[in-house]
Amino acid sequence: MILCLGLSCRRLPAMLPLMRSVRLLRVSWLIALFYLAPTSMGLAQGGLSPFKDELFTNRVVAERDDGAYRVIDYQEMRDINGRDAVPERRAKRRYLDMSVRRKETSLALQTGAGNIPFIATGKLRGASVITIFLHGQGGDEKLGSRDLIFGGNFNRIRNLMARNGGLYVTPTFRDFGETGADQVASLIDELLKQSPRAEVIVACGSMGGYICHRLAHGKATVKQLTGLIYLAAPADKNFTSSAAYRARLPVFIGHGSRDPVFAIGDADRFYGMLRAGSDGYPVRMDRYESGNHGTPIRMIDWRRTINWILAQ
Predict the structure, then answer these.
(1) pTM of the model
(2) Are residues 120 and 218 in the same domain?
(3) Using CB atoms within 10 A as the burial measure, which of 15, 87, 92, 201 is most buried?
(4) Is the separation of the CB atoms in 310 and 282 below 8 Å?
(5) Range of weakest confidence among 1-10, 116-125, 177-186
(6) Do 28 and 9 form a contact (C-beta atoms < 8 A)?
(7) Domain range holding 229?
């Protein structure tokens, strides 16, 4: 069952301070859906509608494989100092639309593997597309929903989901191993009960990629997924033996050329393995030239990437 934890939920008259029974938990979830799901026109034909595209479109300096592999021009002075009012702490106002905060709530799911808190932005029921961001080491459910950091790129994905009848979810989980993967799989199950027709895309940042590895090898979970996004994440050397590979699940890889945590060479080989292993496998990669470990999260063009996945 899902229990509302946020202040917006506690203000509802039916949300009692101590809800211990399963029956009350079910009631709280339904009330949250009724009050908190925003109205929306839904997913436009052809994918997500534009939102601040002129500010977030990447500058391509080289490409190959008919554009599947792109080299992106990244310059710290322009893409951090020129984009942030306070470098790495607060994006400039023109990159943000803070009205999206009215469409978020904090929730938690009790699973067999333990409690998994998450922040949801957008439609809690009947969502057209669900994007789940999995944090890396030291992160939590708040990281991927922080509007001001990473040049406003989390604010953009939140707005893209909410404005297109979708749902954006940022959970925290116990670890980057089997338990954490089980928790995330349970969360996907529960979200799809509320939005059974939704396309589900999982984006894994840094060590969150280890969760993506496990999800990719789970037959039941892969059937629920539409695509995987790896952002500065470790490469999955065994991906070609996974259920995701057999299902031809679209994969996007974003990586900085100077990443000191997970080497760019491993990311390049991951891309090359997918390109070589099967004709026309749906894979794309953006290499952010001179970019560091956090660069892909700041620079990913969410709309372009998600629309490509949905088109597959």
Answers:
(1) 0.88
(2) yes
(3) 201
(4) no
(5) 1-10
(6) yes
(7) 41-311
